[in-house]
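User: I'm writing a tutorial on reading structure tokens. Could you give me a worked example: one chain, its sequence, then its tokens, then a sentence or two explaining what the tokens reveal?
Assistant: Sure. Here is the example chain.
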Amino acid sequence: MDAKTRVQLSVMMFVQFFIWGAWYVTAPNYLNTIGFTANDIGWTYTIGPLACIISPFFVGMIADRFFAAQKVVAVLHILGGLLVLYATTLMKASPASPYAINLALFAHTLAYFPTIALTNTIAMKNVTSSEKEFPLIRVFGTIGWIAAGLALSWLKWETTISMFYLTAGAAIAMGLFSFTLPDTPPTVSGKVTASQILGLDAFVLFKNKSYLIFMAASMLICIPLAFYYQITSRVVEMANLVTDDLPIGRTMSYGQMSEIFFMLVMPFFFARLGVKWMLAAGMLAWVVRYALFAFGAPAQVRWMIIGGILLHGICYDFFFVTGQIYTDQAAPKEIRAQAQGLLVLFTLGLGMAIGANVAGRIEAQHTPPASVAAAEQVVSKTAEIEKLKTATNLTATERDGQIAALEADKNNARLDSLRAIEWQPLWGKPAIFAAAILLLFILFFKHRRTESSV
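And here are its predicted structure tokens:
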């Protein structure tokens, strides 16, 4: 692979995940200010997993068979960027409709999620050695996610609609850039079935009791995983409103920095622990993380909050990456690709979809009337600020002074709303659930290091 192609593919991966990271982590920190409730946020985080379930049909039946991959990526990203811009017009409406906004974001994710598989395809088809060169290109995706969080903190866009403008701009730029990527023509021919696309042929793996237990544990552990993605940033926001030294985007990006570190040391631990105890260590990290949040969030204990975020590297790498390796070992060669697809369907699809709804419902249970009342004040102050920005009967000095006063009132109301949430039981429930899954997994999962495909 020549230097030009390496740079192109690295930039592609960087922007691909920059787009996702620019809104996915901090969306609730803005959406709450325009009237989104806990259940509304639950649906915001359900749409991605639903798109994850649907997108393989598009990739497998259309994109892989009829069009050059880079052109499909280009069109989808431009479309996705325009859909985010449309969503921002709905966000600025008064009152904003969470249902309409979530539909627009769902349309965006339907355009976005197929591009994850397609960019992997473009990279794989244009490297000399996928084993040696692809990981070095893929790591730029994680770096792109980190960069998005750092950019949001630096620009102070973590709690404003600007995060969605950044997302839209990055998506449209990615679309235009994709037309310059190496030509990657379709290579799939012949008949393809829905069962092949969803990996249903890989159901034969469930004859292996250990693999069945692994898959059940993988899907169930994604239920508490959803709590992390859709709630943690508000814990960080609450702490930052008190100390002003925990920028949301930057602090949340520590999880991805940790992910890179633990990916590098994974071979050392894998050789010593093996599949079962690597998976168990990943699940144990979930329990510890949510316990840290349960005790750290109510009093905004910084080291507990940051420690819980840093555990993301173990949570993700030790469980999900080990799971991918185990799946590759357990599956016969001819269905390994389908087995990986089945794993994605059960985890990032079904598991995360269920988890997002469960997290929304549990958050609603532990959001008392005092928090709801303060949240309504935040929405009201946000609307007043937006009106003042376009006021023509005030001098610039008068307008800026009134906006600053309203911003202070809004921040105080936001802090009151977040502090009133019953954080300990909210985080305690996923911690207990993850602990139960861990215990059952240790008791019933049996794996010999010499175990090969079924």
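What the tokens reveal: The longest helix spans residues 248-296. The chain has a mean pLDDT of 89.
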